[in-house]
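Supplementary Note 3. Input sequence used for the single-chain structure prediction.
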Amino acid sequence: PYRGRWEVLSTGQQAVNRSHAKIRALVEQAMATLKSWRLLRKLRCSTTRITSLVQAVLTLHLTSSDR
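The predicted structure, written as discrete structure tokens, is reproduced below.
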């Protein structure tokens, strides 16, 4: 992102900052969701299994929230 006062930045720089903020908000929301899952706090297995478990839980989470 570009630093400086909003009024001083060019229109292009403001657009880049706006886009960056949108992506950052999505990532922060995803990390907060992952941290709230109790399953991941005490998980003791290999990292490859954790990846597939997270994918499965995320799929279930997204399908249940669409309804």
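Helices lie at 11-36, 47-65. Residues 39-67 form one domain.
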